[in-house]
């Protein structure tokens, strides 16, 4: 795993990173047996670039491919923790991308569908759980006080695991690949859960015009 916090755009650094990683491992692209990519939710531009890059490599090598939801990857950072896991990715304007999970017999179980919710709605949903709830993700720093004040059974994951790790995405993807649960490279697309700014502005313009 390589982690780079760099000012250049994703499109500038993506291919050199892949090339350097292969060289450091003494591999060529033809040695890769399968590809895994995060499908989001997250940065619109980052998701598009990541997905299109991996799709290109998949079509060039004719190797299997799976996409893993970013929220699944976050939840897997808390491997085998007891109780409910609630990843929250900051979606701005008081909203978060979220879902609910728990581990059963070493397997991550998804309890719902990924959603874009206000933090108030997330807290209301969590009030129905009688188990311990662990929140994880970059949204925890913004909403920590509201979470801990409203939910006595809640805790916050350590800050160093509040990002979607390539290792977690890769592990979940590996489990699917070895079970021949590949995705269709042509129909797979990023998970946005909301319209991008340009689409929202267009809808607003159409609404005002009508």
Number of helices: 7
CATH class of the largest domain: Alpha Beta
Instruction: Quickly give the CATH architecture of the largest domain.
Output: 2-Layer Sandwich
- Classify the secondary structure makeup into a structural class: alpha/beta
Unreliable runs, pLDDT <50, ≥5 residues?
198-203
- Total count of domains: 2
Strands side by side in the biggest sheet: 7-4-3-8-9
CATH superfamily of the largest domain: ATPase, nucleotide binding domain
CATH topology of the largest domain: Nucleotidyltransferase, domain 5
What is the number of strand segments? 9
Query: How is the main sheet built?
Result: 5 strands, mixed
Oligomer description? single chain
Shape: globular
- Radius of gyration, in Å, reads 19 Å
Task: Give the fraction of residues assigned to helices.
Answer: 40-55%
């Amino acid at each position: 795993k390589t982690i780079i916090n760099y000012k250049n755009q994703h499109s500038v650094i993506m291919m050199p990173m892949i090339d350097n990683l292969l060289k450091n491992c003494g591999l060529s692209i033809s040695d890769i047996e399968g590809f895994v990519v995060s499908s989001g939710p997250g940065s619109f531009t980052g998701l598009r670039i990541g997905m299109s890059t991996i799709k290109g490599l998949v079509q060039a090598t004719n190797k299997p491919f799976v996409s893993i939801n970013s929220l699944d990857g976050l939840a897997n950072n808390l491997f085998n923790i007891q109780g409910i896991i609630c990843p929250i990715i900051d979606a701005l304007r008081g909203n978060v991308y979220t879902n609910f999970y728990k581990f059963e017999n070493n397997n991550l179980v998804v309890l719902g569908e990924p959603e874009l919710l206000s933090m108030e709605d997330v807290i209301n949903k969590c009030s129905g759980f009688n188990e311990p709830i662990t929140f994880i993700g970059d949204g925890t720093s913004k909403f920590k006080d509201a979470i801990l004040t409203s939910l006595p059974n809640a805790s916050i994951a350590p800050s160093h695991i509040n990002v979607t790790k390539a290792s977690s995405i890769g592990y979940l993807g590996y489990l699917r690949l070895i079970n021949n649960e590949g995705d269709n490279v042509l129909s797979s697309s990023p998970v946005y859960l909301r319209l991008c700014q340009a689409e929202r502005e267009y809808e607003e313009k159409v609404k005002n015009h009508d």
